[in-house]
């Protein structure tokens, strides 16, 4: 049972990325209601799925670690990145999407075990997870809600 690593420096994240085949990073903010809503789910998934050399879970507060948020071009919170050893971002989930995070975990475990990901699985994965800058879906509405919450509450 392991909790996500709370990243306090660039060096700490780089060390985590270097020591695990895959790392799922939660980019969040203290003022973000969707971030607060998904946090217990992310912590539970981390405690159930962390694996010594294979899969790590990390949390990056975008306000405290602006350099890391800029490195990964984070523009919406929460954003979950699946990063392969060496620093390559493989996939991203934007928003408080538990199903999307579970899909990242399944994808990482399968790839780390050496199993091939079929074309159908890759297609299903793409329907749940947004890669790169595409497919914001409800994100503008969530950002507006977060801004309203921040300024009025």
From TrEMBL:
<feature type="domain" description="Thioredoxin">
    <location>
        <begin position="1"/>
        <end position="110"/>
    </location>
</feature>
<keyword id="KW-1133">Transmembrane helix</keyword>
<keyword id="KW-0812">Transmembrane</keyword>
<dbReference type="Pfam" id="PF00085">
    <property type="entry name" value="Thioredoxin"/>
</dbReference>
<keyword id="KW-0472">Membrane</keyword>
<dbReference type="InterPro" id="IPR013766">
    <property type="entry name" value="Thioredoxin_domain"/>
</dbReference>
<feature type="transmembrane region" description="Helical">
    <location>
        <begin position="128"/>
        <end position="152"/>
    </location>
</feature>
<keyword id="KW-1015">Disulfide bond</keyword>
<dbReference type="InterPro" id="IPR036249">
    <property type="entry name" value="Thioredoxin-like_sf"/>
</dbReference>
<dbReference type="InterPro" id="IPR017937">
    <property type="entry name" value="Thioredoxin_CS"/>
</dbReference>
<comment type="similarity">
    <text>Belongs to the thioredoxin family.</text>
</comment>
<protein>
    <submittedName>
        <fullName>Thioredoxin-domain-containing protein</fullName>
    </submittedName>
</protein>
